Amino acid sequence: MGKGVALSTAEPMGATRWLLRGHSALVYAFFYAPIVVLAFYSFNESQLVGRWSGFSLRWYEAFLQNDNIQSSLWVSVKICAASTVISVVLGTLAALSIERFRWWGQKVFDAVLYLPIIIPDVTMAVMMLVFFGETAELFNVIPGVDLTDGLEKLVLSHVAFNISFVSVVVRARLANLDEAMEEAAADLYASRWQAFRRVTLPQIMPGVLGGALLAVTLSLDDVVVSSFVSAVGATPVSVYVFGMLRKGVSPLINAVSVVILAASMTLVMASLVLERATSSRKR
Amino acid sequence: MSVAVGLQGVTKHFGDVVAVDNLDLDIHDGEFFSLLGPSGCGKTTTLRMVAGLELPTAGSVQIHGEEMGIRPPNKRPVNTVFQSYALFPHMDVARNVGFGLEMRKVDKAERENLVAWAINLVEMGGMAHRKPGQLSGGQQQRVALARALVNRPEVLLLDEPLGALDLKLRQQMQHELKELQREVGITFVYVTHDQEEAVTMSDRIGVMHDGRLLQVDTPETIYEHPTTRFVADFIGQTNFLEATVTAADEVVLANGDRLRLSTEHSGGTPVAVTVRPERLTVHGRGEAPGGTHRLDGVVDSVIYMGNAINYSISVDWMHLDVRCPATLAGDRKYVGDEVTVSFDPDHASVVIG
């Protein structure tokens, strides 16, 4: 760090400096203190969340022995993976079609695409419930599709709201991409697919990955839509945990949360490491 | 001379806007041809139709006699240098330059040879592994040029490639581009709004205005004998003397003077006689030599330019700009002097519009 230069010109002095530092510390405290508390009490021996009575792994043991939680976690992972992949592909395509082409009805499509971001979750949930109620039989006509088991319904409804978020993020990236870049690729004998694969995609990749990350989060997070749509036997962990809460807060919930937290942090770390490895290989 | 690019009746509409209007043009093999005009005149659209990046609303585009029709850009034997360069930021210089060869599946050894040749051609040796973001504007420009030339296109299309460079670099690149074109012998079609650029580099220039091609000629003819007021005005400074055609080889100026100048416009057509400031000479009143056309006037203003002196002289119905080279400035005139301005009718042209 260029200590002399940076400190003398940019950083505020004296009381202001301490005030700003205090402010930052508070912001971080509000962000992370609950997580620390949550993790801390997951190792609590006591039944009661707020009272420490000694270190114990009993709630993790309980988690491992609880088939319901584990199967609901598994349901969540499946829904999350499937809905993310589908919505990333469709959302990117939607972004491309709006940013790169002009067609009849585009404005309407554009507005409709944003709807799931704007409308409340509950509305979306009711819409999904009614929609599947009316059309489940129609879907079931398609060979290999069985909406009655619930998993497909959850995937479809998560795709429905994730597409919007993915396309918004990808579009922002596309808008900053010089269109002449794609023309240059075409001029240099690339087919449309090659131009996309070799020139456009690498440059919108941060947007696509960002959209994917958002989709993963939204899918794991979702309680409202999922609880309306889910059927017996296909309950995602968010809905399951929410149900547990009604019977009272138990440190088991803390343990589950810590497991999910650890898993997602590992995922983020892995992606960072992977990115660094590939970018250093490309020099 | 065979035709490299042939345009017949090429028209392009964008909604209600006519960007290019019924354009006929033959660009010869191996020539440096410039499309010159103000922004919005349709020159870039014309270039893009040759590249296949736009399809004409009507008309035919041929490259070496082959009809291009609706053929997409990746199937046309031309390459383009874009105004924004459009280098791929995630690839280094070598990958950028080799992109076209890679797409055409040229094998690796040959590709590497050609890429090295092209990078050396534009004097970017040693920069092969830089990313575009690490290059200056001028260097990016060279890479864009190499990326197009490495494919040895039948025609190279250049869309204002020097527009983003500063003056000094631009002048240097003008020279280099011309050299480069001579070296590779590829037909260059160059789009620019800079008349100086077009005049210094081109074998021939096509001047466009409002989607129409007004005149196609050598730079010299365009400058010395423009056929329309727009062309005369757009290329350099000039004087317009309002006139009317009286016969096939005579026009009458607004003051009643008759001038023998050939014109294809019929009698009665309002025209203008255009004479460049440096083609006018200033004499003391009544001292102008014979065989020239003479106009009496009074010196309005004198501007000393170092290498020349600019006079503004008012004759009875208008002002004339006269540019007098410093070498001939011994007999200097001053504001208020009564003078005679003369010009050789060979250096005047009749323009319309």
Arithmetic mean of pLDDT of chain B: 92
Oligomer: heterodimer
Rg of chain B computed from alpha carbons, rounded to a whole number of angstroms: 24 Å
Task: Kindly estimate the percentage of residues of chain B that lie in beta strands according to DSSP.
Answer: 35-45%
- Output the radius of gyration of chain A: 24 Å
CATH fold description of the domain at 70-238 in chain A: MetI-like fold
What's the mean pLDDT score of chain A?
A: 87
Query: Major β-sheet of chain B, in short?
Result: 6 strands, mixed
Q: Tell me the structural class of chain A.
A: mainly alpha
Overall structural domain count of chain B? 2
Highest-level CATH class of the largest domain in chain B: Alpha Beta
- Uncertain parts of chain B: none
Order of helices and strands of chain B: EEEHEEEHHHEHEHEEHHEEEEEEEEEE
Largest sheet of chain A: none
CATH architecture of the domain at 70-238 in chain A: Orthogonal Bundle
Task: Give the N-to-C terminal Cα separation of chain B.
Answer: 32 Å
Distance between the termini of chain A: 23 Å
Q: Largest chain interface and its two residue counts?
A: A-B, 18 and 26 residues
Counted by DSSP, the helix tally of chain A is: 12
